[in-house]
Amino acid sequence: MSTFQIEGGHKLKGEITPQGAKNEALQILCAVLLTPDKVTISNIPDIRDVNKLIEILGNLGVKIQKLGKGKFSFISDELNLDYLESEQFKKEGSGLRGSIMIVGPLLGRFGKGYIPRPGGDKIGRRRLDTHFEGFIKLGAKFRYNREERFYGVEAPKGLKGSYMLLDEASVTGTANIVMAASLAEGTTTIYNAACEPYLQQLCKMLNAMGAKISGIGSNMLTIEGVTALNGCEHRVLPDMIEIGSWIGLAAMTRSEITIKNVSWENLGQIPDTFRKLGITLNKVNDDIHIPAHTEGYQIESFIDGSFMTISDAPWPGFTPDLLSIVLVVATQAKGEVMVHQKMFESRLFFVDKLIDMGAKIILCDPHRATIIGHNFESILKATTMVSPDIRAGISLLIAALGAKGTSVIHNIEQIDRGYENIDERLRAIGAKIIRTE
């Protein structure tokens, strides 16, 4: 298990470029299974979860060639579908939640798809019903081996388009169903579809491959099935979660940082949500410039004078992946805020580490926490912590960089799952951070 040692209390300065988006990359990589032709993808982040999925694709028989940093070509013309029912796949697939999205492309193209019950962050229940209910409406038959915790869908006679109203606007569920429906016979309509920028990117990529998807960016997608898809080239967006993380880092360390090439039009409510915390964000071309907040930052209140509540919601609402960053940033703000994590019931359970560091936080219940900011009058103190998941891990890292003294974070493999070479990139802007194996 690897560890970070972080000497906090240092101001940072410089430019940082966000990596490619993890959540988009996991969808886009699964989509290469839809065609036997070459698909070239650039700006793929070099992180654990993405690399695991690339390894699974290689074991499935995809011909993979690295063309440069973050750029790969994929040819899925000779796949070994027996791998899907092997013990090796059951082990590899169960360790990566994103592997669920290989099922839709394989079902659409080959009439069958299998997946072990996937792992991922322990942040609460993350059910798969939406995925499989969508496949069933397309005509697939579902089976589940309870003893081996192994799922399967089969449609030997092919899929047929259908109308469906999703019970939740699941991003991965929508992606999976869209990929399967692209090769179904007839027209599929998905209502209450997810509409995140990364899902939009998937749909645009599929259209470039010859799919017929309309309604992109809305919560109603219409897919006219085609008989085959061709290859294409695609570039992954910058990671909005990493961008939000760097905004939080700049505020907590009162540092002047420029985040390069952020794709402002795809950031949604992220800039305005951080502005509600009193953080100044300047748009400079396609960059975000954050000045050093030497006088601190003050949380806004609502018009009626009640104190601010920040909560997550499906897109275009504020992403749940950044609520832990908001919570940490609020610990040194002037004022109070309630963070309401609606979507996952265990994602706030890392706040005990922040309380140990001296933060004033009241955990109201599994979904809500009230934070009373210190306004930098009482600096957090260093401590030893364990990273429970990706987003809590980066939040604890940001807290440590703003704390007094040297903190230690264990289980940083969780952070590596979502952030590329984070220690090297932080050192480049002045952070005092050491990785020990």
Description:
The protein is globular and about 70 Å long. With 437 residues, it is of the alpha+beta class. Residues 120-126 have low confidence and may be disordered. The protein contains 14 helices and 23 strands. It has helices at residues 22-31, 48-60, 87-94, 103-110, 129-137, 171-181, 197-208, 240-252, 270-276, 323-330, 351-356, 390-402, 413-416, 422-427, and strands at 3-7, 13-16, 38-42, 63-68, 71-75, 112-116, 141-145, 150-154, 163-165, 187-191, 212-214, 220-224, 232-235, 256-259, 282-284, 287-290, 308-311, 336-340, 360-365, 368-372, 384-386, 406-410, 432-436. The longest helix has 13 residues, at 48-60.
Name the structural class: alpha+beta
Mean pLDDT: 93
Q: Residue ranges: pLDDT <50 for 5 or more in a row?
A: 120-126
* Helix count, DSSP H or I runs of 4 or more residues: 14
**Rg calc:** 22 Å
> Biggest sheet: strands side by side, in what order?
21-22-1-23
Which quaternary structure do these chains form?
Answer: single chain
Gross morphology is: globular
DSSP strand tally:
23
Largest sheet: 4 strands, mixed
End-to-end distance, in Å?
Answer: 6 Å
Helical content (DSSP H or I, runs of 4+):
25-40%
- β-strand percent reads 15-25%
